[in-house]
Amino acid sequence: MDSLFVSNRIFLNSKRYPDLFAGGILVSSVDGKVARIFTQPNDVLAYLVNHDAEVHDFGDLVLMPGLIDSHVHINEPGRTEWEGFHTATKAAAAGGFTTICDMPLNSIPPTTTMANLRTKINAARGKIFVDVAFWGGVVPGNVDELQEMIYAGVVGFKCFLCPSGVEEFQHVAEEDVHLALQKMEGTGSVLAFHAEVECKSHQHNNKKSNPKKYETFLHTRPDEMESEAIDLVARLSQRYDVPCHIVHLSAARALPSIRNARDNGARLTVETCHHYLSIAAEDIPDAHTEYKCCPPIRGKSNQEQLWQAVCDGDINMVVSDHSPSTPGMKLLNSGKNRGDFLKAWGGISSVQFGLPLFWTNCQRYGLGIPDVVKLLCTEPAKMCGIDRVKGRLEVGYDCDICVWDPEDWFTVTQDIIEFQNKANPYMDRKLRGVVHASFIRGSPVYKATHKFGAPKGNILLKKVSRRGSKVVKFE
After folding, report:
1. Could you tell me which of 230, 150, 160, 162 has the C-alpha nearest to residue 190?
2. E strands of 28-91, at which residues?
3. 211: closest CA among 265, 146, 292?
4. What are the residues whose beta carbons fall under 8 Å from the beta carbon of 328, sequence distance 6 or more?
5. How far apart are CA 473 and CA 475, in angstroms?
6. Can you tell me the distance from the alpha carbon of 276 to that of 297, in angstroms, rounded to the nearest whole number?
7. Looking at the whole model, is its pTM more than 0.90?
8. pLDDT per residue over 2-57, tens digit each?
């Protein structure tokens, strides 16, 4: 039986229907695609007079496309105690995200070869509550693996311009990047950069600084590291006909270089993260290493410039960079190194809370629901090349739905967290925007009243023809 989703506030993310309206969305029971759109309540009633359908009536709750997080570290296999597919995708579903893209590290093995990609896909099967796509990785010496991974279905590749923090994923030199871009030209695949470089001009003596103060860590990764790396990315993106992407921008200082590259024809997109928009360095308490990430959270003035860049369109999307680890690695347990920002693992867990983290601040900057969907759904889908099936509620698209209340508030507490290791910088924070349900292809994957059923997510592989970059199949 087909399903009919009804609400007084529906946002399709459609050019034909750009505003909220009261109506319904019919989803086919055969393939989970949107079959019809009803833009008037009377049209819904008229349809039900002559047709059977399972009706989901959400009253005044907002019904909109399921969100997409293109930057998530799941870490299975190899470091499943940090985060696994089961817990990461449950957290995503509870946050209204129906598709996530897994980064090529910190799993063992990393997703840097065809064999490793198969290992990663096999580890995910049967465990995922949302659809999962995969990034490949560019590391020194794997350039001959890239095209096969593109044809196998990765959404793109990520590289580090500085040490990644794990031995099995080495950072690249400029020569490696040139080789990768040459292999990628004509495929339509994107190369994403962790854009920090070690600057010879910057030296910081930590011996006399208190490692439990956030300021000590912040001084070790100045915005110069980012701006120099992004200058390099800007130059490369203008030389090759390959889409390039800057992950987790934290330094507003780099924005002029990004604008200049785009003005000169570069296909360059940029993301920032919820923690850079929600937290300022001045507010981070001593010894609270759950706030540590790389690049680091910077000051309030920098944060305001990032928000302005979001409003102006200089930043294309906002993602979680969900990068979990165990409490021991974050140095949150007892011991002499507890709270040492210099020794703790850098990474923030937040895949479940991206929507309310962003929405809580949106009103201050004049942003509404269409902006939320653009930044947390449309643009990630486009960048990853899955926007022909994901990112909007149009006839023929996957009927992935987020149902939420933008007026209601909740408090982040440990008992509601679905990701594996609960430490995060948002504990006890009051946030606006409560997710009530998530549906994938019309099937419920999360309901606040009933929690979860069986995992219903699919492996999402972007099939690309060897004759060109045309997407021919998703599976």
Report:
1. 150
2. 34-38, 54-57, 62-65, 67-72
3. 292
4. none
5. 7
6. 6
7. yes
8. 999 999 999 999 999 999 999 999 999 999 999 999 999 999 999 999 999 999 99
